[in-house]
Amino acid sequence: MRHILIALFIVACTSNAFADELSSGDTAWIMLSSALVLLMLPGLALFYSGMVRAKKNTLSTFLYSFSAFVWSG
Fold first, then answer.
1. Which residue range(s) make up the domain with 52?
2. Long-range contacts of 9-13 (CB under 8 A, 24+ apart)
3. Rg (Cα) of the chain, in Å, rounded?
4. Is residue 30 a part of any domain in this protein?
């Protein structure tokens, strides 16, 4: 499995997919997608906190959602 991932990485790095020029449309799409994910996060935390039983666990579920966002960013 590791050899396959290394081979895919080498193929991806040597292809022309990573052009040197930046497209304003691509940059705008990435910024819009990031903003939508940021707006989705409180809703996701509310959804997950609705599945727990106690109020104390609700706060911890909120913190888990936000800390996962901070850690991944």
1. 40-73
2. none
3. 19
4. no
Residue 31, in any domain of the structure: no
| pLDDT tens per residue across span 1-30 | 777 878 877 776 665 655 667 788 888 998
CA atoms of 37 and 41, how far apart (whole Å): 6
Whose CA is closest to 61, among 36, 34, 43? 43
Q: What is the DSSP string of 22-42?
A: PPHHHHHHHHHHHHHHHHHHH
The CA distance from 32 to 29, in Å, is 5
∠ Cα 71 19 8 (to 5°): 65
Q: Are 68 and 40 in contact (CB under 8 A)?
A: no
pTM comes to: 0.48
